[in-house]
Amino acid sequence: MTALTYAVIAALGNVAGGIAVARGAKLGLRLISGCVAFGAGFMLSVALAEVLPEAFEMGGRSAALYVLLGYLLVHLSQHTATEHFHFGEETHSVTHQAGVTALIGLLLHTFFDGVAIASGFAVSQRLGILVFLAILLHKLPEGVTISSIQIAGGTEPNRA
Q: What are the backbone angles phi and psi of residue 46, rounded to the nearest 5°?
């Protein structure tokens, strides 16, 4: 299989998570909630044990700067640039516009997931497959999240 095939399969994880919400698959949602924790641990271990060492080997000391810039970009986008950060308390209703915004963000996020998979395969087959698995595991919960936001914003479940 090619890197593109792996990227498309990973993106279909979003669809599977969305279908579970739209169909109200209670068992599926329970399984997916377990996948969130497992996927987070898997992604963290791939990042720390595989991706970071490879980045430092290929990029030398300058790789540390790029790692820091990547972290700061995520921090900026999640906690500084948006007004949505609220320390865990849900203090507002979800509107249709929030669903559209979340969908656009997810599409952009999915594009970069594909870039990460392709980059992993550019380094080695083994790293590409590990990155693919890590991304696939977090795509199911993403699908659940985006469909839930769409439904909460007023979209019919069959369209979410």
A: -65, -45
Q: Quickly list H helices, the chain.
A: 3-22, 26-46, 52-59, 62-75, 96-123, 125-152
Tokens for 160?
A: 């979410």
What is the mean pLDDT of the segment spanning 144-157? 77
Q: Residue 63 pLDDT > 90, yes or no?
A: yes
Q: Which two tokens stand for residue 54?
A: 């490879």
- Answer yes or no: is 88 within a domain: no
pLDDT tens per residue, range 10-45:
888 888 888 877 777 555 556 666 666 777 788 788
Q: How many domains does the chain have?
A: 1
Query: At 138, which amino acid appears?
Result: H
